[in-house]
């Protein structure tokens, strides 16, 4: 059950994600195809500095293509792991979700990029249902175990 649905056509999705990251007090587990938004990267770093446990899983191909993402990951204490899709190097870890405090999931088409915020039609769902959150948690943990450290 989505309690909030946000579209880039009508609202700044990055602002919504930033607000939820700022409210996290225990953990943030993000599985992201792309991450180059300075605003969202800073919000992740802020959470880490507040003592929130943070883990970020990124698509290996997009990570290697993006100097911005590689520089961010190299210069931060945020644990980052990389993963290809199910078919290996030519496939994608195409998820776009974050689990906050094991209670809320933010998911949708929205990549954590400037392009998603400024150019694309994208969506974000805010999910609170306990079983839905648990399913996302299981998916994240399974992928985290498969992934390699950057």
Short description:
By secondary structure, this protein is an alpha+beta fold. It has helices spanning 13-23, 38-49, 60-65, 67-74, 114-118, 130-146; strands at 2-7, 27-32, 53-59, 80-83, 96-100, 104-107, 123-127, 148-149. It has a single domain (2-149), classed as Endonuclease Chain A (Endonuclease, Chain A, 2-Layer Sandwich).
What does this structure look like?
This protein is α+β, with helices and mostly antiparallel strands and 150 residues long. It has one domain (2-149): Endonuclease, Chain A (2-Layer Sandwich). Helices cover 39% and strands 26% of the residues. It is built from six helices and eight strands, in the order E-H-E-H-E-H-H-E-E-E-H-E-H-E. It has helices spanning 13-23, 38-49, 60-65, 67-74, 114-118, 130-146, and strands at 2-7, 27-32, 53-59, 80-83, 96-100, 104-107, 123-127, 148-149. An eight-stranded mixed beta sheet has the order 1-7-6-5-2-3-4-8, sandwiched between helices. Strand 5 (96-100) and strand 6 form a beta hairpin. The model has no long low-confidence stretch (mean pLDDT 95).
Ordered list of secondary-structure elements with their pairings:
Blueprint: E1 2-7, H1 13-23, E2 27-32, H2 38-49, E3 53-59, H3 60-65, H4 67-74, E4 80-83, E5 96-100, E6 104-107, H5 114-118, E7 123-127, H6 130-146, E8 148-149
Parallel strand pairs: 2-3, 3-4
Antiparallel strand pairs: 1-7, 2-5, 4-8, 5-6, 6-7
Helix pairs in contact: 1-2
